[in-house]
Amino acid sequence: xxxxxxxxxxxxLFPAGENxxxxxxxxxxxxxxxxxxxxxxxxxxxxxRHGDDGEIPPHRVNYRANIAALRDAGATSVxxxxxxxxxxxxxxxxxxxxxxxxxxLTWGREATFFDGGQTGRKHIDLTWPFDAGLRERVLSAGxxxxxxxxxxxxxxxxxxxxxxxxxxIDYLKWMGGDIVGMTLMPEAALAxxxxxxxxxxxxxxxxxxxxxxxxxxxxxxETTASELMPCLKQLTTHxxxx
Length: 242
Ligand code: HPA
Prior knowledge:
The protein is an alpha/beta fold. The two termini are 13 Å apart. α2 packs across α6 (229-241). It has helices spanning 63-72, 132-143, 166-174, 187-193, 218-227, 229-241; strands at 2-6, 18-19, 35-39, 42-48, 77-81, 84-86, 96-97, 101-104, 149-150, 154-157, 179-181, 197-207. The protein is built from six helices and twelve strands. Strands 1, 2, 3, 4, 5, 6, 7, 8, 9, 10, 11 and 12 form a twelve-stranded mixed sheet that branches. The chain has one domain: 3-Layer(aba) Sandwich (Rossmann fold), CATH 3.40.50. The structure holds hypoxanthine. Hypoxanthine binds next to β6, β11 and β12.
């Protein structure tokens, strides 16, 4: 079964879902109850990463409990939605980017299921952090919906919750980053540890800090995110159908 982890401002993507009873697991409480959504194309599990009211900031999300809850509920693949600022394509704000690589600059997050003690020690390969087959399917589903599609990008994951300084964005660009967000890691690595196929689609909701020479407007971010909602819903249903 496919799962969708919905990000900032996208909590209402599938309002018609049936809430499963919220269960904590060995890793704590997931962000919200999982919702089972039945569409004409098939069944989907939906989890709001920031809670149903968007109240959990990126650095406080219990990524381990979220991934474990989805796996325990029968998910085998995850489409993750992560809003981002665009570093290298500021003219493409309002489009979706399907990243192909990740740089993790977060700190202090619980980032592994293999945490020593009873959970043991294991090193996973993350050379290509996204599942190639699922990524291809996300790209072809993305081609069928209204917004523009950027076919690849290096996602840099920052700790947040603040946005970056202009100098930090220069630095991220220098290191090869195309888009910047706060939520893809450790989620992608945990999905790999849990054996779930994982791919992401990133609404590019603003030009990254400093690029336009003016402060970033949070209201503009929210407006752009909600404008992309119909397209994300279409993409998800195409993905289910394909
Ligand atoms: N930086 C980090 N995270 C983000 C941004 C950004 O500019 N936009 C949306 N999420």
